[in-house]
């Protein structure tokens, strides 16, 4: 090989969102003039710039090339050491490729975003908001969740109380708010509260919400009951005041009867008629109505002879067929494509949706077997978004039993498209793989049984779902 190279320095450090420069020094040790082409390779190649991209050297001369590294401030820029390399290809001898290697350390950064879904909850005895915590940093996030309010008016049941979130992922925390004092009568009252995301060595991240506590009995019902009680008391007093005097003559009649009654005279034996036979007692046969007779002999056209419409082949229809063949765990699903309608149901890791990035998924139909039911929620387009993110539907579905259809999103005309989803099951693991417009298939994500969840898709308001896969 007729080339000598040196990286100065061989190891460098850079902050996400910043840049650093490494100098590549090389010498032509051959005896002919040669031109060298430079190409960055490795995991951080997309963030690497080489200047100049070609260099011409005479025998025995030395040249330099600058490598500039500019990793973005996103979860993709993994914290820690990241090896890199530069492929050098001589023009005169393309088979004599040289690949000097170095090491770039990306410093860690933490960025957390939290949102209450919904920000306002209503209830008489408790409220159940959910807290979505997004890790936008490049290191694993460990945090605990606590609740507080002014005046200690609420008690908090938070599950899970601690979360660990990988970079670029989100976790969902259930909170149950219980008022310490019940409002029996009167108007509803607002009780502001705060859920705090606590991290070691960092200030708490407060997320404010409102619990709207309703009275046990509304004011109109209390007024109605009071008026009804007043009317009942008035009627009772009038009844007592004007109660009619009732006198009975039963005693006198009995006294007269005791004086005038004589011993009864013997009567001749009377013959008792025999009970009617079963034939005599049987009711007459019911005559067939002319309409029924016509329906039986008309040979078509009647309501009774019309064939029922076939049921649509939903996800539950497909998963029941699989469950009938074996007692294992299965998941079936189908997607509603705006403008095209429902796709056919597929199962256990097959892809559903579309290959056309212009088509949008607005709803999903899911059914499981052998998994103790499923619950899910849709992350949908928010036309009023100010931060570039979509929004969650107002609430999760209930826990839908095995072999039963579960629907998220909407199949109505003009419904907002989905950008992501969350799902859980009652036993085992559930895994998802999603594809959004402009992106390739993402990596598979899995979650253990309820209360854990798995999120698929993106929070980006402009990237709709085009295809999904599930396994259990």
Automatic annotation (TrEMBL):
Q: Where is the composition biased (Low complexity)?
A: 261-294, 303-312
Keyword Hydrolase in the entry? The reply is yes
Region annotated Disordered sits at: 261-312
Query: What's the name of the protein?
Result: Hydrolase
Highest taxon in the source lineage: Bacteria
Q: Which organism is it from?
A: Streptomyces hokutonensis
Q: Which residues cross the membrane?
A: 220-242
Q: Name one GO molecular function term.
A: hydrolase activity
């Amino acid at each position: 090989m007729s080339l000598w190279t040196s990286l100065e320095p061989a190891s460098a450090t850079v902050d996400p969102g910043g840049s650093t420069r490494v100098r590549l020094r090389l010498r032509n040790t051959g005896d002919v003039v040669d031109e060298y082409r430079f190409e960055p390779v490795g995991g951080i190649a997309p963030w690497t710039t080489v200047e100049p991209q070609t260099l011409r050297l005479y025998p025995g001369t030395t040249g330099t090339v600058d490598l500039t590294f500019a990793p973005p401030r996103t979860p993709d820029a993994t914290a820690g050491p990241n090896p890199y390399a530069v492929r050098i290809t001589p023009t005169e001898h393309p088979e004599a490729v040289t690949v000097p290697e170095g090491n770039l350390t990306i410093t860690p950064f933490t960025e957390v975003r939290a949102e209450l879904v919904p920000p306002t909850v209503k209830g008489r005895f408790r409220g159940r908001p959910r807290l979505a915590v997004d890790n936008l940093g490049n290191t694993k996030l460990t945090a605990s969740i606590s609740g507080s309010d002014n005046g200690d008016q609420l008690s908090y049941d938070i599950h899970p109380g601690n979360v660990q979130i990988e970079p670029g992922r989100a976790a969902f925390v259930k909170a149950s708010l219980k008022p310490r004092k019940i409002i029996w009568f009167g108007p509803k009252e607002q009780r502001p509260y705060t859920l705090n995301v606590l991290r070691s060595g960092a200030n708490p991240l407060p997320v404010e919400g409102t619990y709207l506590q309703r009275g046990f009995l509304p004011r109109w019902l209390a007024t109605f009951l009071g008026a009804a009680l007043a009317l009942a008391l008035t009627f009772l007093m009038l009844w007592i005041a004007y109660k009619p005097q009732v006198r009975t003559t039963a005693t006198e009649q009995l006294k007269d009867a005791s004086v005038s009654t004589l011993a009864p005279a013997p009567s001749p034996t009377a013959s008792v008629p025999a009970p009617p036979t079963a034939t005599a007692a049987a009711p007459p046969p019911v005559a067939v109505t002319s309409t029924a007779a016509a329906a039986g002999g008309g040979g078509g056209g009647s309501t009774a002879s019309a064939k029922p419409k076939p049921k649509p082949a939903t996800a539950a229809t497909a998963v029941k067929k699989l469950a009938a063949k074996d007692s294992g765990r299965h998941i079936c699903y189908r997607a509603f494509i705006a403008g095209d309608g429902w796709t056919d149901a597929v199962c256990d890791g097959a892809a559903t949706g579309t290959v056309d990035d212009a088509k949008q998924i607005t709803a999903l139909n899911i059914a499981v077997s052998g998994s103790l039911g499923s619950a899910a929620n849709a992350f949908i387009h928010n036309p009023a978004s100010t931060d570039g993110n979509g929004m969650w539907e107002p609430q999760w579905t209930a826990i839908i039993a095995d072999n039963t259809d579960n629907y998220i999103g909407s199949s109505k005309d003009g419904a907002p498209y989905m950008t992501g989803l969350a799902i859980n099951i009652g036993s085992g693991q559930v895994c998802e793989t999603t594809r959004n417009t402009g992106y390739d298939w993402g990596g598979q994500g899995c979650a253990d049984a309820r209360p854990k969840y798995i999120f698929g898709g993106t929070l980006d308001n402009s990237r709709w779902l085009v295809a999904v896969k599930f396994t259990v």
